[in-house]
Automatic annotation (TrEMBL):
Organism whose genome encodes this protein: Nitrobacter vulgaris
Domain of life: Bacteria
Keyword field contains DNA-binding: no
Domain observations: Consists of 16-stranded beta-barrel sheets, with large surface-exposed loops, that form a transmembrane pore at the center of each barrel. The pore is partially ocluded by a peptide loop that folds into the pore lumen.
Protein name per the record: Porin
Compartment annotation: Cell outer membrane
Signal peptide residues on this chain, from the entry's feature table: 1-23
Length: 516
């Protein structure tokens, strides 16, 4: 009996030990899986970041472009190699781009906190750089970067309690920027910087689609085309970027065809920008104002020579969108008009090749013709005061949907640039004749720009679009007679008397884009 009792107790103890061992091997209870949930607060495409109350949306596009008769993708041939209209001008330029957007939003007691980022990786090829000392005349991408590519940031900003802080679209520009119905980058006639400018802006909503914004933005990246010192010039004739071994940046002391050398001082004030906007079912109206400070350098190459005082310039713009027009559903008209005084880039925006200095030769090669168009913020002569340059312009487009898969746009733009009488007196009496000879029958640095174009878009499936577009631009310059130009080695142009006349440019673009 004692033996049997011992066996039972031993077996029971063994079972307890084995049960404990098996229990130790059992897995712990798994935590509930956190699935990604749809966030319907801010529209389609938003999801909650797991474990948070923040919603996120990813987006972007993949794009391939081909520009025909352009040295810079989707801009006209208007300067240096591009404006030579000979063997140094590109017949075409290619570009591939990938874009990524990240939009996050969180509801708080102060309202929605939003962050937005848009970054791009771009590969551009075919950039002809002209005469080179060693190496290839083609560098693959004039922007440099990773294996000929370029990383970029279009937008990076925070929005909180009505404030926008960071790199965002300029409050001066219309919602469509420089693209009222086109893919061409270079339209004049209004604000640009749609890919973002650093700013600190406050926006208030009045209700019924009415809002107003006021803020400051950085002028240095996109809004400084030049303050020209008309008195800087070496002895004898000289021309922009032509005298060996000057390949690349223009050396100090080389005049730009009698228009002096850009002589900005440091950035002393941000641009002040305000906007009033009305959004309704019929469309949109927006009025914008900007103040832009001109801070010149000195009269000579040293500070002891003194210099003119700075001046504030300004720009004003009105923009209008008309929807629900009788030509068809989804059709739209976008139009804007602008005036500037000492704030030229609010009209001839940063992405147009006609901004700043332009030298366009006539086609056909040889000593033929040339056109000048310079659009700085202001100019000054030796011991003179700063003279603000005035401009006005407009741009617009009509977009028509032929069917759910086909659409097209016709668009145009115009800008006029004028110098003050005092500026013209020095430029035509001293500066321009000194650089270009005395062969003018009429000297007038004013000029106009006109542009017109059309495109056709095919969208075979949702978010995949193929576009072809053509643009014609004309430089209407006011000089007449001849200009005695020295050798321009950068573009193989020889010394000679070139007839001063208007010039025109055409560009054709092809694009394929998949948006997601």
């Amino acid at each position: 009996m004692n033996l049997m009792k011992s066996l039972y107790l031993g077996s029971a103890a063994g079972l307890v030990v084995m049960s404990g061992a098996h229990a130790a091997d059992l897995p712990l209870k798994a935590k509930a899986v956190e699935y990604v949930k749809v966030c319907s607060l801010y529209g389609a495409g938003f999801y909650y970041i797991p474990g948070t109350d923040t919603c996120i949306k990813l987006g972007g596009y993949m794009r391939a472009d081909l520009g025909v008769n352009t040295n810079t993708i989707f801009q006209g041939n208007t300067g240096l190699q591009a404006g030579a209209q000979n063997r140094s001008s590109n017949a075409f330029t290619w570009r591939a781009r990938s874009d990524l957007t990240i939009d996050t939003r969180t509801a708080t007691e102060y309202g929605v906190v939003r962050t937005f980022f848009e970054g791009v990786f771009t590969w551009t090829s075919g950039g002809y750089q002209g005469v080179r000392v060693g190496g290839s005349a083609y560098d693959g991408n004039p922007n440099g970067g990773v294996l000929g590519g370029q990383l970029g940031v279009f937008h990076a900003f925070i929005q909180f309690a009505g404030f926008t802080i960071g790199k965002a679209a300029s409050q001066f520009s219309a919602p469509w920027g420089q693209y009222p119905g086109n893919v061409y980058d270079g339209l004049v006639g209004g604000g640009g910087a749609l890919t973002g400018v650093n700013q600190f802006t406050y926006t208030t909503e009045f209700g019924n689609g009415v809002s107003a914004s006021i803020g400051v933005q950085d002028p240095s990246a996109y809004y400084q085309p030049g303050i020209q010192n008309l008195g800087i010039a070496p002895p004898g004739n000289a021309i922009l970027d032509v005298q060996p071994p000057f390949f690349g940046p223009v050396p100090y002391g080389t005049p730009q065809l009698g228009y002096g050398l850009s002589a900005y001082g440091g950035t002393t004030f941000p641009d002040i920008v305000g906007q009033l906007r009305v959004d309704q079912a019929w469309g949109m109206f927006q009025a914008s104002l900007a103040g832009h400070h001109n801070n010149p350098a000195y009269y000579t190459g040293v500070e002891t020579g003194g210099g003119p005082g700075g001046k504030w310039g300004w720009a004003g713009q009105g923009a209008l969108t008309i929807k629900n027009i009788p030509t068809g559903p989804g059709d739209v008209i976008n139009v804007s008009g602008v005036y500037t005084n000492g704030a030229t880039r609010y009209n001839i925006q940063d992405m147009t090749a006609l901004a700043g200095a332009n030298l366009i030769y006539g086609g056909g090669g040889g000593i033929s013709s040339v056109g000048f168009g310079f659009a700085p913020d202001s100019v000054y002569a030796p011991n003179g005061q700063l003279q603000l340059v005035s401009t006005w312009g407009m741009r617009g487009a009509f977009t028509h949907n032929w069917s759910p898969h086909w659409s097209s746009s016709v668009f145009g733009a115009y800008a006029a640039v004028s110098f003050t009488g005092e500026a013209k007196s020095y430029m035509c009496g001293v500066s321009i004749p000194r650089a270009l000879g005395a062969g003018f029958t009429s000297c007038n640095p004013d000029f106009n720009i006109a542009q017109v174009g059309a495109n056709l878009r095919w969208t075979p499936v949702k978010n995949l679009t193929f576009t072809t577009e053509g643009v014609y631009s004309m430089l209407d310059q006011k000089h007449a007679g001849v200009a005695n130009l020295p050798n321009n080695y950068a573009v193989y142009k020889a010394t000679g008397n070139y007839q001063l006349k208007d010039q025109d440019i055409w560009t054709v673009m092809f694009r394929a884009q998949r948006t997601w």
